[in-house]
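Backbone-to-sequence.
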């Protein structure tokens, strides 16, 4: 990913250059596919398929359009979009599991989250909301690392912090989330 190109295109789009936005979205779309594939490999078959994650996150990002203040803001929005995709799917699965509504099958968005994981995903979402209330930076670190799949260095770059700080925040946030998820 060429971060300087993304930054330049975001700046141009914010300044009203519609062509910049058209150039930006395909670059971002390809990056989102890489991130979704990475997340899928990490989770095995226990996640939404790549196409479903990318398409839904891309739609959320496209609606936000040129409202991104900068690259950091863009990645925060991307992290939230990916988190929302996974959590919304888990909520739909839980609702269907409890007998509400008819399940509609879309061949391009066939999920592969096991029903057993939906409660876990929803619990993680709630715990992450509580963490963000206690420590907003740790909440952002978790979103960027877990939902977007950024490395420690990439997360540090996006948030404008050192890698050492991100490592400390990541370790602390994971420990806190682990305790919350167990209780």
């Amino acid at each position: 990913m060429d971060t300087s190109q993304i930054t330049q295109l975001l700046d141009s789009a914010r300044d009203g250059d519609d062509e910049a936005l058209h150039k930006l979205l395909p670059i971002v779309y390809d990056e989102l596919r890489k991130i979704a594939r990475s997340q899928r490999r990490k989770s095995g078959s226990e996640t939404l398929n790549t196409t479903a994650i990318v398409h839904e996150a891309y739609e959320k990002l496209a609606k936000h359009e040129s409202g991104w203040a900068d690259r950091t803001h863009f990645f925060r929005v991307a992290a939230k979009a990916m988190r929302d995709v996974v959590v919304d799917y888990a909520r739909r699965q839980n609702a269907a599991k409890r007998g509400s509504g008819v399940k509609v099958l879309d061949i391009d968005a066939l999920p592969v989250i096991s029903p057993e994981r939906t409660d876990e995903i929803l619990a993680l979402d709630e715990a992450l909301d509580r963490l963000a209330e206690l420590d907003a930076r740790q909440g952002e670190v978790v979103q960027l690392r877990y939902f977007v799949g950024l490395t420690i260095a990439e997360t540090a770059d996006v948030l404008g912090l050192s890698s050492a700080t991100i490592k400390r925040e990541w370790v602390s946030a994971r420990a806190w989330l682990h305790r919350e998820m167990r209780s």
